[in-house]
Amino acid sequence: MNPMLPLLTLLGGSVATPLVGMFSRKIRFEKIRDAWAILAFLVTTCYFSYLIYSGKLPLYYAVKLEPSWASIEIRIDSFSAYMSLIFSFLGLMVSIYSVGYMSGETGLDEYYALLLTLVAGMIGVTMANDLFTLYVFWELMCISSYTLVSFRKHRWEAVEAGFKYLVMSTIGSLIALYSISLLYGIAGTLNFSELSQIISSGAESISTSTLYFIIAMIIAGFGVTAAIVPFHTWLPDAHPAAPSSISAMLSGVVIKTGAYVIFRSLYAVFFPTEFLYGHILILFGLLTMSVANIMVILQKDIKRFLAYSSIANMGYIILGLGVSTYIAHFYPSDIAAVSLALLGSLFHVLNHAVGKGLLFLGAGCFIKQAKTRNIAKLEGIGRKMPVSAVSFSVGLLNLAGVPPMSGFWSKFFIIIAMLSHPKDTLLHTSTIVFVVNILVAAGYYLWLLQRITLRKPGEQLSKIREVSPSMVIPVAILACICILLTLFIAPVLDLISGPVEALIGYLHKPEAIGGV
Amino acid sequence: MKAEEVVAGILLALLLIYVVAINPDIFRISRVGYSIEFKFEEKTYFIWTNRWVDVAIQAFMLFATATALSALFREEKVEEAEEEVVVEGGEG
Amino acid sequence: MFLQVFYANVALVMILIGFYCIASKRNLLKIVIGIEIITIGVNLNILAMGLMENSVEPLAQEMAIVSIAIGAAVAAVSLSILINVYRHYKTLDTRKLRRLRW
C-alpha cells in the first residue's frame, strides 16, 4: 500500500474536476461531476478504513538520499490514519450533501475541486513527518478554505467573513512559520524524529527560553485555526457565512487539524516530560470553553449558535491535551491517567466531528427550506421535516452528553483523568469549571432541541416540506453513526487506543520511532 | 494619534521589550544539530530529489489558487432570496 | 555569525513593522501589504537561519523558495476577496464595513 495513494486520488481528482465538469455540461448531465468528487472521497475513505483494519501501521514513504535528514518523509501512523479517516469520511458526507444543497449555484466545478484540495491538504498535514512539508500542506488547506468561506461572493457577509478569516489565519500561519524557521536554526533539520532527538539530547546547549518561545508561537500560530480563545474571533463569522456544507467541514474537521498539529508537535518534538506547558494549555482550554459557552447563550442565529458551541468543544479537546501533558510532566509514572486524558480528548475529536457535522448539515436543511437563520423563526420546523429533525436531535443529544451517548463518555474520561490526583489544586479547580461548563452546554443544547422539534410550527412554516434525498441521506447516516458509536463503544475505544499509544510512545522510546 | 495606532504601538513596545530584555537568545541561535557540507549552487538537483513532495504540493497549491480566483471572479446569474441574517447591534 | 544576527534582527523588525501595519491601518489594502511584509520578514529569517560561510544551506533555500510561492498565492486570494469587498461597498475602509465585529 503506497502511502501517497490517497493524496494522489484527491489531488488528481481535483485537477480532473474541471475537465469532468466540462464533459458533463457537454452531455447535459451535470451530476457526473458530483459523482466524480464522491468517488474520490469514497476511495480515500475505503483506503484509510482498510489501513486501520489491516493493522499494517505505520507506513513510510521516505527519500533516503545524501543528507537523509533533509529529505522528505511521509509517515502514516495510527494517529494520522485515525484523523485522516475522520477527514475523508466527513468529506464524503459533505460531497453527497452538496449534490442537493449546492444545486442552483454557479461555479460548482471550482467548488468540488476546492473541496477535494481542502481534504487533500488536511490528510497531508496528518501524514507529513517534517514540519515544513506540514506547513505546505497546511497552506494548501488554508487557501481552499478561504475561498470556500467566501464562495457565495454575492453576499456581503461571505466576503467580509472570508477576508477576516484570511487575515487572521494567515497571520497565524506566518507566526508558526517563524517558529519553524527558528527551530530549523537550532536543529538544522525539520524531521520530527530527528528534531526530538536533537532537542532532548542537546537541551543543555540550547537556551530554554528560546524553546519556550517556539512552543508558545506554535500553540498561538496553529491555535488560530484551532480557535483557542484569544484567537477565535474569525470562527463565529466564518461559519455562518459559508455554505452549510462548508460550515460542517470547517467546524467538523478544519479546526481539528489545528488541534492535530498542536498535539503532534508537542508530543513528538517537545516532550511534556521535559517541558512544562500543561498548565497553560489547561488555562487556555478553560478560558476557551467558558467564553464560548457564555457567548452561545446570547446568539439568535442558529449557525452562530453552533459556531460558538464548536469553540466550546475545542476547549474540551485542548483541555484534554493540557491535562495529559500536565500529568505527564508532574507525575511521569502515571501513564494510565495520561492515556485516559488523551483517550477522552481524541474520542471527543471523533464525537465532535460527527456530531457537529451532523448539526451543521441538519441546520442547512432547515435553512434551505425556511430561508432564515433566526432561531425564533425556525421554532417547530422539526414537525414539518421529520427525518432531518430526528437526526438533528440525535446530534444535539450526543453533543449535550446525555449519559448513554458517546459524547458523555469522552468528557467523562477527561474528568476521571483530572480526578486521578486529588491533591493537585489546579486539576481540582479546573474540574469544577469543566463540569459547570458541561452542564451549561447540556442546558443550551436541550433548549435548542426543545425549540426546534417540540414547539408548534408558526404560520410562516406551513408550506415547508422535507428536503431532497441527497440532503437527507448524509444527515441520517451521520445520526446512525452517532448511535453506532454509542452502541459499539468498546471497539471504538480499541480503535482510539492506537493513536493514544502512538502519542505516548514518543515519551518512552524516542529512538525506536525514527522509522529508519 | 488614532486609538488603533496607540494600541498597536503599545503592543509593539511590549513585544520588543520581551524580545530584547527577556529573550535575547533568539538572535544568537547556534546550531546544535546538522549542517550540510555541500552548496546548493553546485547540486541544484537537491530540490527535486530530496524535497520533491514540497515542490509537487506547491504546484497543486498554485492550481488551487487558480481555481480559487476563477471561483471568486465567476459570473453570477442567480439572484436568490437571501437567507435572513441576524446581526447583533443593528446594521452598520 | 555577525551576519546571521544582523539578518535575524532585520527579519524580526520587518515582522514587527508588519504587525504594526495590520494593527493600526484602516484600509484593507494596507492590511494586505502588512501581511506581505510579515511574509518577507519570515522568508528573510529562514535564510538567515541557514547562513553558511559564503552560501546558504540547501534546505533553507528550498524552504524560502516554496514559502515565496505560498506568499504569492495568499496575496492573490486576498486581493481577489478584496476586489469583491470593493464591489459591495465601493470602499476599502474597515470602519465602513465592520458589520461583523472584529
Fold and architecture overview:
The complex is a heterotrimer of chains A (516), B (92) and C (102). By secondary structure, chain A is an all-alpha fold. Chain A has helices at residues 5-26, 31-54, 78-101, 108-127, 131-149, 156-187, 192-201, 208-225, 235-241, 244-268, 278-298, 302-330, 335-370, 386-400, 406-418, 425-454, 469-487, 489-508; strands at 59-62, 73-76. Chain A has a two-stranded antiparallel sheet with strand order 1-2. Chain A is globular and about 70 Å long. The model of chain A is unreliable at 510-516 (pLDDT under 50). With 92 residues, chain B is mainly alpha-helical. Chain B folds into two domains: 1-29; 37-74. In chain B, 49% of the residues lie in helices and 0% in strands. Chain B has helices at 3-22, 46-49, 52-72. Chain B starts with a helix and ends in a 20-residue tail after the last helix. Chain C is mainly α and 102 residues long. Helix content of chain C is 75%, strand content 0%. Chain C has helices spanning 2-24, 28-49, 58-89. In chain C, α1 packs antiparallel against α2 and α2 runs antiparallel to α3. Chain C is elongated. The model of chain C has no long low-confidence stretch (mean pLDDT 87). Chains in contact: A-B, A-C, B-C. Chains A and B meet through α1, α4, α5, α6 and α7 of A and α3 of B.
CATH architecture of chain C: Orthogonal Bundle
Largest sheet composition of chain A? 2 strands, antiparallel
The SS-based structural class of chain A is mainly alpha
Q: How many distinct helices of chain C?
A: 3
Shape of chain C: elongated
Strand order of the largest sheet of chain A: 1-2
Straight-line distance between termini of chain A: 18 Å
Question: What descriptors fit this protein?
Answer:
heterotrimer; B: about 90 residues; mainly alpha; 2 domains; C: about 100 residues; Helix Hairpins; elongated
How would you summarize this macromolecular structure in one to three sentences?
Chain A has 18 helices and 2 strands. Chain A has 516 residues and is an all-alpha fold. Chain A has a domain at 272-516.
